[in-house]
Fold:
Amino acid sequence: MNLLLLTGMSGSGKLTAFKFLEDMGYNCVDNLPVPLLKNFVDLMQKSDNQKVVVGIDIRSGKNLDQLQDTLDELSHDGKKCDILFLDAEDSVLVKRYKETRRNHPLSKNERIQGSIQKERKRIAFLKERADYVIDTTHLLTRELKEELTKIFVEKESYKSINVMVLSFGFKYGIPEDADLVFDVRFLPNPYYDLKLRPLTGNDLPIKEFVMKYDEAHEFLNKVTDLLEFLIPNYISEGKNSLVIAVGCTGGKHRSVTLANEIYSKLLPNSDGYGLKIEHRDIDKDRKIGK
Structure:
């Protein structure tokens, strides 16, 4: 029997994950009381259910304190239980709760932020034990489904960290979720060429303009070398999300070009992690130059 424990932060997408796993042929039981877990596993082993997902999280209340010992007992008895932990950044969880207007399971008369911090501390042991950690901070619903499909259907090797290369404009603010920020405003700005101004770093003339300077290539080589050193070490330390932000003044020309170049440099060696690219501010000045 394939037994999967689905857990994680409230608001991280567990209900959505349950629906996808059910579509993949798993029998799903959500919010199972911790004291019933061992008996439930014994019962499922005697049945024809070969793929089972059990949801246990902060809603278990005080019983959650028993889960550590229960998992140890199952492991000692040779009953393997994989753990899938869904996570997201605190600011995103707060935003999701405000959008859905739902109460956090721990909220009474305190702010959502305080409840999230309490929850994170109480379930930290589950994240440490997890076989799979998926950070849904930047994932669309379809992208979460793709991640689950890769792991549980296609049986691809699990990518424990998602790397996002993000271009942005300093005049719109540094991304709050950025882990590393690189400033490329030291490069000549194609904005001052009226023919180039309406274009973006995704257009060949802008790329040729930015990359004709030796400084751009030297910057690219140094940053790539740094990232190829950092990413494996972040993975070793258990980090599951890395946002690499590349900024110029407006987030339309230089930063887009260099973000694309960094992405292209990392892509050939990205088998051990997920890699995405996004241009946050590329469309914000579309009227300029018209």
